[in-house]
Amino acid sequence: MRVFVVGANGQIGRHLVKMLKESDQHDVRAMVRKEEQADEFKADGIEAVVADLEGAVSDIAAAADGCDAIVFTAGSGGSTGLDKTLLIDLDGAVKTMEAAEEAGIARFVMISAIQANNRENWSEKIRPYFAAKHYADRELMNSSLTYTIIRPGGLLNEPGTGKVKAEANLERDSIPREDVAATIMAALDEEATYNKGFDLVSGDDTPSEALSKL
Amino acid sequence: MRVFVVGANGQIGRHLVKMLKESDQHDVRAMVRKEEQADEFKADGIEAVVADLEGAVSDIAAAADGCDAIVFTAGSGGSTGLDKTLLIDLDGAVKTMEAAEEAGIARFVMISAIQANNRENWSEKIRPYFAAKHYADRELMNSSLTYTIIRPGGLLNEPGTGKVKAEANLERDSIPREDVAATIMAALDEEATYNKGFDLVSGDDTPSEALSKL
């Protein structure tokens, strides 16, 4: 699969792009916001395109043209305001879904947040962020795409352990970003994850083992 | 119809509650956030209940129990932050839809904003607000409810003219809040508005005439 990574310059995105680049099974095209970011990827031999999640759906569709799957791992981040939460995490995500449909790319993997599906478990401090993720996920479930919604727990920068736990509903826990990226890799063509959402934290199984049980 | 008005204490809500109260065809139950607000309505002989759009769906469903239609005209307003835009205008609206389904109330009228359906026409200064309204409207269209989405132009406090224009897509223009309320009244059991959304500005037709052309 040629995988279009939205948010390639993010912390999960960088792990994922590297894994896709090293993979025998997949190719990667990184979508980034700035030319400098694209140049950095290109210097590493990685295909990269510049597109803006606040721009037109057709621009995103053109950037993704010819890919077989889209991974949405962009996030407005903690340093921006809730305007970007609405315009990137929600509207930018849905625009990417519409771009996938426009470009005829059926496979879509969304990186969400643990328990974004259950209002009563939204993190109290960042409820508005969870609302944005929740409705992006709902739009994806209502789309025509073959989706997988991965809802990781608290994200850590420490090296991955290679072992995860993936279930429809899990208690809040944490997981290294590298293990989230490895789980995205395993999910891409794992049919057990098609049209499903699941929570993801550190655990005892390899990503492939964990996903095959879904 | 017994009509449950969410946002009864808002500026459109107050006009609407008064019209429903004076109507021979309809009854009204006002939903408000505070006991004092409920007491004011009750002093005017209007049924009123206290419920919180940031609370549980089941509480909203209980508050609406026995009604035949719901009008959502609540808004977080200009004086609050985008946290409330996400939690009231989007999540509160969708909770109200879920409450309608839970309470078996099929008819739902949403007050949105002109061209909230077209990203390219969102008011640049308040794009995040338009995003919230857009996705609330999309959730309604994906629900099982018999919906009408009314998207008024710039809201004025001057007295109504009794004359409006209602079409699927209109140029930005303005309309008195009193005329929006009169259009909601006319839409409640007007089948030409079922499962449709339309822009609304001041015009040359009575609300009934305008809606029958949809």
From TrEMBL, chains A, B:
Pfam families linked to this entry: NAD_binding_10 (PF13460)
Domain NAD(P)-binding, chain residue ranges per copy: 7-190
Domain of life: Bacteria
InterPro entries (UniProt xref): NAD(P)-bd_dom, NAD(P)-bd_dom_sf
CDD domains: SDR_a5 (cd05243)
UniProt protein name: NAD(P)H-binding
Organism of provenance: Alkalicoccus daliensis
Lineage summary: Bacteria, Bacillati, Bacillota, Bacilli, Bacillales
